[in-house]
Each structure stands twice: as structure tokens, then as C-alpha cells.
Amino acid sequence: MSDHQTAQPDVTAFSGAVVQCLHPDGSPAEVLLEERIELPTPAGVLVPQYEPEDPRRQRVQPVELHPGGGLKAVSLQEKAVIETPSGAMAAERVTFHPGGELRRVFPLDGKISAYWSVENETALAGPQRMETPIGVVTARIISVHFFPSGALRSVTLWPGERVTIATPQGPARVSVGFSFHESGALRSFEPDAPFEAKTPVGTVLAFETDPEGGMAADLNSLQFDESGNVTALTTATDKVVVTCNAVAEAGAGGLCPEGLRSGGAGADGTGADAWPACCPDCARWAAATGKQVRQPGRLALGPGFRESLCGTTPTDLVPLRMGFTADAVSLDGHVFSRAGHGFSVLRGLMPVARTTYSC
Q1: What SS3 state is found at 28?
Q2: Which of 59, 84, 119 is the endpoint of a domain?
């Protein structure tokens, strides 16, 4: 049993405990407490919320349980300092893994309403000091997330908060948050500004115009493997040119390499006339997109645009999402083998700006 795990208490046995709903297996899912209790938990002795104190908390939050009775989440009556694998932290809400280990810590648990604004809640968001695999970080945060082993999984920053962290490719200014592999190696972060990331296809400006971190920064747009190599990123500015080796090798009037021809080629199954049939990856791209190209065997894939439903401009930019493995490059989900294609980067073709909304 880890330092941050303990025997699971039976919340329903406490005086004033009211079971509100059940799991499909019949075990309690939510328990409302009508009086003050001291609850032993993996995060220490906590006092769950039992009465509203102020306009921040419009209703009493129940204690949530996993199927079988283990603690899942506890909202505290008052903010308390708890011990975590990353040091002491203030908390108003904590959650737990099914095995009893500490999962997430939320320093604040206010409810935004007509009586309590985002600005009101932000005024209470003080900085937290955390020990992380990349050094001590002090910042205002929404939450921290731990693996069952106690290793730090992610840090989600408060909206508008920025920190500078060490990455496999140098210091980076970060918004939204950052995450780790269980080994402690950096897994991902959200660049606050275009970041020059070295990838298997060249240097790409990594930047997401509309980050989806939300309440959890477990997996952000710039991602690394445990060795520090880039495995995925989003770019709002750059294009990637893909050159099909089969067409280049065939040349004008040349035959497609035997074994790559997949049928449906042009009149004589030769050269550029046979593209994309002579390349399975290109054939799949053509079938999926239905697009025509001016120069067969050469694709330029980059950010695009879509109609804005509630943005401040008529259209929203749709960044290009890239992925890398030892054998292939993925561009918006279209996979091209590294052995069968050449790649180059066209830099800085789009202006950089965060997407903003009016609704």
C-alpha cells in the first residue's frame, strides 16, 4: 500500500449519512452528509461538505463512491491543506482512484452562477507550490492529477496563468498545463506561443489556437515519448509537403514499382498517370478526401478553415494535427509511410492568434 492510500471508510455508517443514489450493482454511488463528520481518507482526515457557507456553493455536494464502496470524490466543508506526493497543497475537493490512492486535488470548488462570477473565483485562486519531475513549479492551478503509484500525471493551470518549464527541446512558456509519463519524463505541454519543435519532418511551429485542456491537461497538443522525441503536435501556421517516392522513381512515362500498383491505374499504369493507385497511402488519402491535385504525387497539407458558429470572425482556423512513429507520419489522420515518401515543411504561412468566441 502506497503512502497515499489507506483503508476505505464506510461513509454510510456515519450518523447523518443519506444515500442519494446507487450504482447498477446496488452499491451506494452518492452519500449526502447532514452533519459534520471527520472522514479518514488517503489524503488525511477530511471534513466533507454538509452545509452551504456562501454564494460560491449553491448546494451541498455529496460524497461520491466507486462501485463497491471505495471513496471516489469528497468536496470539503472548508479549504484544507492536505499532503500529496508533490507536497502540501490547499484543497476544496479531492478525488481517488478505485484502489484508494489519491487521484486529483482541486484547490477551489466554487460554482459559477449569477451570484458568483469567474472574477470572484479567480480572486481566490492563490499560487500553489508543487514538486514536479522538472523542478519546483509555483502557479495558480485548477487541479493536479496523480497516477495510482503517486507519480505526478498532470498539472492544469488556472485560465490566464502562464509558467515557463524545462522541456526536451529547451525552455517553453506554457498555458493550459503540462503532463508526464509515469516514469517522470515530460509527456506533453500546451505552448503559449508558437514553439519551434524539432520533428522527423523538420522544424515545425507548434501552436494550438483553441486548446481543449479544459478541466484536465492530461494530454496537450505538443507530445513526447519517454526519450524526448516529438510524437504529436498541432500547428496553426505551417504546411507539410508530402512527395510520393513511387511517382518520383517512375518518372515521366515510367512504370510504377511492381508490388505498389493497387489497380485502377491510368491507361498504361505508368508514372504520374497511375498516381495515386501506385501508392497505397496516397490512394487512401485520395479516397478519403476526394480532392484533386495539380501535381500528382505531391501534396501540401496544412491548416484550413471552417465556418464559425459563434466566433468573432466568419471562419475559424482549423490547425493541422501531426503524429510521428518510427515508420510513418500522420497528417490530420492520413498516414504516410516514411519509407515511401519525402517530407518538407513550409513555415509561417498563417497568422497566429487564439480562437475567440462571442457566445
Answers
A1: strand
A2: 119
Candidates 152, 232, 146, 254; CA nearest to 188 is 232
Is residue 201 within 8 A of residue 343, CB to CB? The reply is yes
The pLDDT tens digits for 183-220 are 999 999 999 999 999 999 999 999 998 886 455 799 99
Query: Would 289 be classed as within a structural domain?
Result: yes
Closest residue by Cα to residue 202 from 244, 172, 245, 240 = 240
Which pLDDT score, from 0 to 100, does residue 214 have?
52
Instruction: Determine, yes or no, domain membership for 281.
Output: yes
Q: What is the 3-class SS of 37-102, one letter each residue?
A: CCEEECCEEECECCCCCCCCCCCCCCEEECCCCCEEEEEEEEEEEEEECCEEEEEEEEEECCCCCE
How many structural domains does the chain have? Answer: 2
The amino acid at 148: P
Could you list the residue range(s) of the whole structural domain that residue 271 is in? 241-301
Q: Which residue, 119, 153, 178, sits at the end of a domain?
A: 119
Distance CA 286, CA 273 (A): 14
| Prediction pTM value | 0.87
Q: Measured between alpha carbons, how far is residue 230 from residues 112, 216, 224 in Å?
A: 38, 21, 4
